Amino acid sequence: MAMWQGAMDNRGFQQGSFNSFQSSSSDEDLMDIPETAMDFSMRDDVPPLDGDIEEDKSYNGGGIGASNRMMDFLEEPIPGVGTYDDFNTIDWVREKSRDRDRHREITNKSKESTWALIHSVSDAFSGWLLMLLIGLLSGSLAALIDISAHWMTDLKEGVCTGGIWFNHEHCCWNSKNVTFEDRDKCPEWNSWSQLIISTDEGAFAYIVNYFMYVLWALLFAFLAVSLVKVFAPYACGSGIPEIKTILSGFIIRGYLGKWTLMIKTITLVLAVSSGLSLGKEGPLVHVACCCGNILCHCFNKYRKNEAKRREVLSAAAAAGVSVAFGAPIGGVLFSLEEVSYYFPLKTLWRSFFAALVAAFTLRSINPFGNSRLVLFYVEFHTPWHLFELVPFILLGIFGGLWGALFIRTNIAWCRKRKTTQLGKYPVVEVLVVTAITAVLAFPNEYTRMSTSELISELFNDCGLLDSSKLCDYENRFNTSKAGELPDRPAGVGVYNAMWQLALTLILKIVITIFTFGMKIPSGLFIPSMAVGAITGRLLGVGMEQLAYYHHDWAIFNSWCSQGADCITPGLYAMVGAAACLGGVTRMTVSLVVIMFELTGGLEYIVPLMAAAMTSKWVADALGREGIYDAHIHLNGYPFLEAKEEFAHKTLAMDVMKPRRNDPLLTVLTQDSMTVEDVETIISETTYSGFPVVVSRESQRLVGFVLRRDLIISIENARKKQDGVVSTSIIYFTEHSPPMPPYTPPTLKLRNILDLSPFTVTDLTPMEIVVDIFRKLGLRQCLVTHNGRLLGIITKKDVLKHIAQMANQDPDSILFN
């Protein structure tokens, strides 16, 4: 039988010595930026250990503490016990049990005095207060990001002489020398060619504007990638794959810390303003979760309990989507459907409250000046017809195909980045992609504008006063119903816009593959929606012209008469956007709700549902993983997907460690091992915990003790309990027997022993074991036969086994 390995590996301790309590793994190891050097002393995802425990002192088993007081380890809590190392999984069962004990103690004390009653009420109210603070902070930061990104995006094209802090739109709002038709052209707004060579006409002026556009884009991108590389490597990417992993119980210190929040907020503005094919919506979820994690430190209830903190992070994720799309209900459903691992009913209510407060805060600040929460809010008034479900389903098929294609190509490129020299030069990669994007984007007005503005333009339902090329129709009518325009023949502007949009579609499809995953904040929601919106608008205009010129066809004559408003191209753009976003992320319910909250109408839910479901079916047929799950597996995070079924007929004995003919399982006995014996086992192994048995002969299970708790308890005893030496006996029993005179004092460690570790028999089917790990969030499970300990199954053993059953390399999917 072999020593059990895998998930019980402890990254913080090397063989032969007890180094620091902090993991030796660094942020750069995870994010693949090897040349970045950082000080992670400011990490704050996990509360620091007590000051009595020196993190930089090597543990060599020697020395007796100066204190003469005897410490009763059964009564007094030991500082640091119960915390977790970096890149380890929390024990959900233990954390929930702790919270129940804490709540029970507060409830019992509340009957003793008025002050205790007040404390009990404040403890119950603290969760709602925390949600309020998260909503206020998330909404404020989202508004700051929106305003800053809008201004800096316009800065690439010119500056407002009436006030440098105004973006193009606000600059011309304040102008008194502008007409409605030319509302985007005012004397106060000057392009760079006007400022540099005093003219906006001619080839040289065009070259100056072109050069300045590319220069600003490169400057913004360089600042973004440099800040991320130097100060906060965890601020790159969208953050959603890591947040899903953290919510499943994994600990990544610093990922939701103060430095990450500050750098992510700044660099997100820079990345969006650079014109790269990325969005801010995904990173806003990361920003909101950072807010939630930091604010948790103000409340002991959440600061000291990792499971409770993850409930808060689920609510914060809902607030992030709420401010990203102006969709509070969609945010709650997104958190439930896409990111959360454990989502009790209480978390649902609090998520709803946090999303509400965040949306209200953003609406109060009004970053776009139009009383809307997003730039591309739109309202449609024309009903859709049953026949239109055919093109809507076609858009769903396109969205599924695009999603599957994008995931495969993007994962292949990211894997190449991780395994080749390319990953060593993140700054060069970002600058090259930015330069290519900017050079190709400037000549085309639809790629030059921000992606959010492009989506707003594509969603727009054309009116008589619209000056956009997409609304350049020939007006061949005399009268029309109030607020309704009939279908009209396309003008020259529409045809020009069509081929420009086709070129934009090609650029977005290709460049997004290389952009997502670079070492800058980058969301995928907006680029995916842009691809779908362009496709939908092209199809919508085609359907509109088909209905206009061939209204007597059988498919049109029953519902579309000449002079009627039959087809709404903007609706097709919206359905296409939903289809492509669903194909990439595999969202369904939350996606439909987000899109209908964007449009403010319930009438279009059926087209959105048809497109979203078709997209998911097509994409699932070509590959089961969404983009976030694919990136989780690419990085090897220990994430046990709850949506997948385990259908193989294997048993616990097939997976447990040790196997046949391997060395025996490393165990501790309850009353016969000395401090030196335990220290030797800890020094010679890298396991994260040890089963405790009655004796090596009987192998009757007593409990399970964590390596970290053992080290902290022994070192604490040496410092504070007089007389504890290497020959002192360690007892995990409730009472120690009388000792002869002149023997060293015993060390009682029963309080760090888990007396109810989860056990299964050796003949338990693995499908049940996998379900237990998923639903209880276990770190490990002990295997017994007739009450005798046989082995252990860890979370990583389960992940390896699932990979083996799927004919994958089991070692390639594990975090390193």
TrEMBL record:
Residues 656-720, 752-812 form the CBS domain. It catalyses: 2 chloride(in) + H(+)(out) = 2 chloride(out) + H(+)(in). The keyword Membrane applies. Coiled coil: none annotated. It is found in: Cell membrane; Endosome membrane; Golgi apparatus membrane; Membrane. Keywords: Antiport, ATP-binding, CBS domain, Cell membrane, Chloride, Endosome, Golgi apparatus, Ion transport, Membrane, Nucleotide-binding, Repeat, Transmembrane, Transmembrane helix, Transport, Ubl conjugation. SMART domains: CBS. Residues 1-28 are annotated as: Disordered. SUPFAM superfamilies: CBS-domain pair, Clc chloride channel. Gene3D superfamilies: 3.10.580.20, 3.90.1280.20, Clc chloride channel. InterPro entries: CBS_dom, CBS_dom_sf, Cl-channel_core, Cl_channel-5, ClC. Residues 12-25 have a biased composition (Low complexity). One of its GO terms (molecular function) is voltage-gated chloride channel activity. It comes from the Eukaryota. The keyword Cell wall biogenesis/degradation does not apply. It is a multi-pass membrane protein. Its main location: membrane. Pfam families: CBS (PF00571), Voltage_CLC (PF00654). Proton-coupled chloride transporter. Functions as antiport system and exchanges chloride ions against protons. Important for normal acidification of the endosome lumen. May play an important role in renal tubular function. The CLC channel family contains both chloride channels and proton-coupled anion transporters that exchange chloride or another anion for protons. The absence of conserved gating glutamate residues is typical for family members that function as channels. Belongs to the chloride channel (TC 2.A.49) family. ClC-5/CLCN5 subfamily. Interacts with NEDD4 and NEDD4L. This is Chloride channel protein. It comes from Vicugna pacos.
